[in-house]
Each structure stands twice: as structure tokens, then as C-alpha cells.
Amino acid sequence: MTDKLTHLDDQGQASMVDVGEKPDTARVARAQGRVLMQAETLALIRAGTMKKGDVLTVARLAGIMGAKRTSDLIPLCHPIPMTQVKVELQLDDDENAVVITSEARTVGKTGVEMEALTAVSVAALTIYDMAKAVDRSMQISDIRLLEKRGGIHGDYRAPHVT
Hints:
Layout lengths: L24 E12 L2 H9 L7 H14 L1 H4 L8 E11 L4 E12 L4 H19 L7 E11 L6 E2 L5
Antiparallel strand pairs: 1-3, 1-4, 2-3, 4-5
Helix pairs in contact: 2-4
């Protein structure tokens, strides 16, 4: 780990990192998060009977679209030509939750961790938006990077990831 902050210039001003000299490498990042809700809300989502439509399909598309717009949302984040973005949603009856997992891929000079995290975040916000009329107590939680591969800093895998 380095003590130098990479997004500050010599005068301490926010600055985009120059990645021009870095080699292009294959990069992958996976992220995950959850939306906790009442059992009745999860049942409506499973049945596809939410008034705003098919929550899971819309959230999946929103997550993919969010990943593609990450550099527009996060200051100093590089626009990245992604080769693939996946968003998977699983219903967890034990915790009354929708578990969102994303994977972003590119071949480039910088990683796709922020794109994977943004995909999960936007999908979670979409679930909240589509179900808030019946359950304002929903909680978006545990958004985190599961793993990343590629690049000069090497691979990372979060503890307790199966």
C-alpha cells in the first residue's frame, strides 16, 4: 500500500490520474450488495406483480446502464470501454432480500472496480424505487468489491467470498 494519494496533484488539487503509460491488460471486477425488505415485498417481486413492472428485469438493465455511465457519475473516474457487464439478481427467502452480483470486464489501462460497484448500486436503487410504494423500510446494504483481477497491482479477493 502506498502513502501517496493518487488523485491529488503536487499542489494538493484533485486531479485525474494519467494512465497513458500503463499497459493494456484484461481486467475483471465483481461486486455484490443486498436490498433487505419485508417478506410480502419479496413475494410481490418474485410474482412479478409490482405495479411499476418486472422489478428484476428493470433492475438488471439499470445496473448495466449504470456501469456504462460510471465515469459520468464518479469524479475523476476514467471512461472505460467495457467488453461485458453482467448483473445477476437472486431472491434470498431466509433474509427477505434481493442479492445483486455484478461483473464488469475490459481490456485496458485501468480497472473496472468502480463500474462493478456502480452496477450493484444502481440496481439496488432501482429495486428500492420500484418497490417503495409498498415497503419504505427497505435497506440497501453490504455493497462491496468481491474480487478484481488484472492490472499492475495484482488480484484481490475479499475475505469470506465463496
